[in-house]
Amino acid sequence: MMKIPFNKIYLTGDELKYIQECFLRGEISGDGYFTKLVSSLMENKFSVKHVQMTTSATHALEIATRLLAIEPGDEVIMPSFTFPSTANAVMLLGGKPVFAEINRENLNIDPEDIKNKITNKTKAILPVHYGGIGCEMDKIMAIAKDHGLYVIEDAAQGVNAKYKDKFLGTWGDLGCYSFHGTKNYISGEGGAIAFNLDDDELVKNAKIISQKGTNRNQFIKGEVDKYSWVSIGSSYVPSEILMAILYPQLKELDLIKEKRKKINDFYYNNLSKYIGLGKIKGMTTIPEDRDSNYHLFYILLDNERTRNNVIKRLKDFGVLAYSHFVPLHTSTMGRLLGYYSEDLPITQEIGKTLLRLPMYTHMTYEEMDYVVKSLDTIIKEL
Ligand SMILES: *Cc1c(COP(=O)(O)O)cnc(C)c1O
To answer: What is the rounded CA–CA span in Å between residue 337 and residue 380?
Structure first.
């Protein structure tokens, strides 16, 4: 029996070399040589005016909501099918997350339902690109423009993927990325925020927020002769050691994507027949107008019992598969916010029926084949 983990970190082989360089330079706190290398690399590759590296996507989202001055009473529309960080970033400032429904095709927020949820308190839209497949950003940007709303993209899973001709994270006013160890490009913990608004003041304020509310950056640049407390802030600057890990990962940006595409295509080509046979209700499907980064591969089963049973049976074969988000509106916190599970029926159903298959950049053909053969056997039992 083979043992297939759900996820494994992928290293290019150059990480230790760059970490060592970091020590040799004597620079291990933030905002140094490697931070500049990775942020410029992202600016060039994704055609963004400015990218600031952060300690996580969670923190990038927190910087974003603070920069756009989300205040008590402000409503921010987002999917419920996401990670708690998306909603926390709004709630930490006293704002209210308003959950909109997702579509069944790629589990992204439904633009029509965004429109339904707009009130005179709505301040921003916070779409999440599920699994690295982009939301319909042209429609979302048009809605935002019509109603004078900001757009923050939670592109934590969407690094190096595109909707139409533009990279995810570069459509909205601000875009948030993750380099957490479970994502496609990793620094262990880490993230970034992309500035698409042409607003130097915002970039300056993001630095102040990230540097404990001080104007340390202006001091380093020689713009002021000492630095001090100028605003409310926190500590969101990643260590140079982490950015040294990220650098070789980003140098292999497209190679890593290519490797993951092979896994995605193998799963899709071997499993899509089960949709026709009525055994699987849906699976990761990339629309023509989108370029995925192949962050994950999911299948949708008939009901929660079948899903949990397939997870259990795969485990018997040594294959680790997982469900994904507990929809935020059905969580303990969601109930405290006044939501009922039935409020978003599609989201509720997806939360119960989705199963993610093992996926990691250096997965071998034998491993993928073993997962598919195990599923072939299990699906016959259904
Ligand atoms: C992973 C993830 C986050 C959090 O990323 P961190 O870098 O771990 O803070 C936020 N939102 C979504 C959709 C994610 O998948």
So the answer is: 42
